[in-house]
Request: fold
Amino acid sequence: MPNVSDQNGGESHDEQATPGGLSSCLGAREAAPTRRGFFLGLGAAPLAFAVGTEDEGAPPALESWTVFLVRHAEKGVDDPRDPALSEAGKLRAAALAELLAAAGVNRVFSTDYRRARDTAAPLADHAGVEVELYDPREAGAIVKTLSELPAGSVAVVVGHSNTTPQVLTALGAPEPRGLEDSRYGRILPEDCYDRLYLAHFARVGESKDARFAGSLELRYGS
Reply:
């Protein structure tokens, strides 16, 4: 498992607050298909469908769950070590809550930094759940938790520019496009706050082992 944190709470480089409207990764070198305001029809009910053939008799059910991973929204300049969200960041946090309002979110995870907690809070409030804190320096623990979620779970994980792509790939997804090299590993570009990653998992029959079933890279906000 790669190192997914640094002394600035998982942030891989010195980000600057973005004035005005929401940033949308203008500095990214590789463009991915943009889906703004995109909603996936996800509910809390697990999928259950056949995975065998008629000759095999009754096939085992396939239970699934979904994890969204997102970097915290734009941060301010009020505290160099643990800043709150900027006004643009507050708008983005509200946009995330609105986007996933009908997705059946029942778990929300965040690192214990103001910019991450404040990104998670509107969504958690809307979903009626508490924000569960995790340590980015113990990324293996959050990966294990996500891999063992009950069927039908819809979880959201708020992280940082290096932790978000690293946790995503540790879960089995391909590396996101447009990452940059840094001393902390492969990171999201400094102005990339609009990435939203979806990872889907399945468990077949009575097996306790999670299988990575696919991922999507989306955009959200203006």
Remarks:
- The chain is about 20% helix and 25% strand.
- The helical segments are 87-99, 114-127, 139-147, 163-170.
- The longest helix spans residues 114-127.
